[in-house]
Amino acid sequence: MEHAQGHEASLEQTQRYCVERPIYNEELLQSQLHKRERTPQALRQKIAHSCRCSSKKAKSHLYSCLPILKWLPRYPVKEYLLGDIISGISTGVMQLPQGLAYALLAAVPPVFGLYSSFYPVFLYTFFGTSKHISIGTFAVISMMVGGVAVRQVPDEIISVGYNSTNVTDSLEYFDARDTKRVQVAVTLAFLSGIIQLCLGLLRFGFVAIYLTEPLVRGFTTAAAVHVFTSQLKYLLGIKTNRYSGPLSVVYSIAAVLSKITTTNIASLIVGLTCIVLLLIGKEINLRFKKKLPVPIPMEIIVVIIGTGVSAGMNLSESYRVDVVGNIPQGLRAPAVPDIQLIPAIFVDAIAIAIVGFSMAVSMAKIFALKHGYTIDGNQELIALGICNFVGSFFQSFSITCSMSRSLVQESTGGKTQIAGTLSSIMVLLVIVAIGYLFEPLPQTVLAAIVMVNLKGMFKQFGDVAHFWRTSKIELAIWLVAFVASLFLGLDYGLLTAVAFAMITVIYRTQSPQYRILGQIPGTDIYCDVEEYEEVKEYPGIKIFQANASLYFANSESYTSALKKKTGVDPCAVLAARRKAQKRHAREIKKANAPRKKAVLKLTNDVEASVKHEIANDELPVNGRSASPDVSIQDVSPDEHEHFVEPKPNIHSLILDFTPVNFVDSVGAKTLKSIIKEYKEVGVCVCIASCSGPVMSELTRLNFFDDTATRELLFHSIHDAVLACQVKDRSASQ
Question: STAS domain: which residues (predicted)?
Answer without folding.
Answer: 531-724
